[in-house]
Specification:
- Helix content is about 65%, strand content about 15%.
- The longest helix is centred in the N-terminal third of the chain and has 28 residues, at about 15-40.
- It has three helices and four strands.
- It is α+β, with helices and mostly antiparallel strands.
- Helix 1 (about 15-40) runs antiparallel to helix 2 (about 45-70).
């Protein structure tokens, strides 16, 4: 268990935690490499700093959007409430039912 007194206990397997830390370190290394490349290619300090800021914002937005897409559920789901019980049906199952109805 990983966590602190302020945030409470976080139930995260150690392998997932290690992958999260390695992923974060890799992103930091990639960002630093790109900034070093810009500084080596551009002799003007102001231009290189401005390019680094713009690229940082662009990379942050791209990473956030790709992460949102990558972490979305594989199948969209449909849920309904009947007699106090919530039923969740995946989109894949709904398509199979529609195909079966057409065949009958």
């Amino acid at each position: 268990m990983i966590g602190s007194v302020l945030s409470g206990k976080i139930y995260l397997p150690i392998t997932d935690f290690i992958m999260f830390v390695l992923n974060s370190l890799m992103v930091i290394i990639i960002y630093c490499s790109i900034y070093n490349l810009i500084n080596m290619l551009c002799s003007e300090v102001v231009v290189s700093m401005l390019m680094s800021i713009i690229i940082f914002i662009a990379m942050f937005v791209i990473e956030a959007s790709v992460g949102y897409i990558a972490n979305s559920p594989k199948y969209s789901t449909h849920s309904y409430l009947e007699d106090g019980i919530e039923y969740i049906i995946s989109q894949e199952l709904i398509q199979i039912i529609q195909v079966m109805r057409k065949l009958i």
